[in-house]
Amino acid sequence: MLNKHTTDLGKIIKESREKLGISQRQLARQANMDCAEVSRIEAGKRLKPNILYLKGIAETLNLSMVDLMKLAGYNEIDINWGKNLINKRTSADYQNQIQSYEQFYFDVLEELENRRKIDFAIKGAIADLIDKIELAKIEKKDISNDEILERLKELIPMIRPNLEKLDKSKYPTFDKGLF
Length: 179
Known about the structure:
- The structure is a single chain.
- By secondary structure, the chain is an all-alpha fold.
- It folds into two domains: 4-88, Orthogonal Bundle (434 Repressor (Amino-terminal Domain)); 97-178.
- The protein is 68% helix and 0% strand.
- The protein has eight helices and no strands.
- The chain has helices at residues 4-19, 24-30, 35-43, 51-61, 65-71, 76-80, 91-138, 145-163.
- Helix 1 (4-19) crosses helix 3 (35-43) and helix 7 (91-138) runs antiparallel to helix 8.
- The longest helix has 48 residues, at 91-138.
């Protein structure tokens, strides 16, 4: 009976290999492994391929070593612990980490810009309220406390989002094995 993880692993490797136009023999040569082993992995007959083979495949096909290890059934301890973490990461893993940080910083910058716009809108609304109060004073007209209070109540919902912390779910993913 085939392992579901290995079947998914074999499917991804085969699809990536074919997408790049590489034969099993070429992949085996570039990954420093036997062609029969590539065939067994793609067919789902190899339950848990050797990490060095997975690394060679990942580097050759520009895939994430971490993702391949997960698909092969390696657990988090196998993936993130040990003396040679560098052997368990590929440039694709590092690129994914960098993209995660880039996206996070762009999201933060966008949120800061939105908060800045809200701040200007609040500042403008407060300035309008002050002008209204001063104009009423100059024209010797009464402005009711209820009118001022209503306008201030309208501003509170605008202020509230700017006081909240950034959503932690938007923080970048962190792969302990990369650092």
